[in-house]
Design brief:
By secondary structure, the chain is mainly alpha-helical. Helices cover 54% and strands 10% of the residues. The protein has four helices and two strands. A two-stranded parallel sheet has the order 1-2. The longest helix has 16 residues. The radius of gyration is 14 Å and the shape is globular. The two termini are 24 Å apart.
Length: 82
Amino acid sequence: MAHMRRLGTVVYLKLSLEEVEGRIHNLNSRGIALSPGQTLADVYQYRAPLYERCAHITVPAGGQSLAGTVEAVKKALAAYQK
């Protein structure tokens, strides 16, 4: 994770588990690394704290359109760079 931070600004698009589950319809072919018996909830609980610690910027991305998320990221990046 430290390596990613050195490469550039890391933006975490924060979603609830329910929102992630609603967006991922093809879990088996999506390329999400799951151990045998592991669920998406298990991965989420493990990774979300890592993403939050790694991110320079966290942008809430739930309940909005793609365009809304893009605008939120642009605003967050502009504020971060000041």
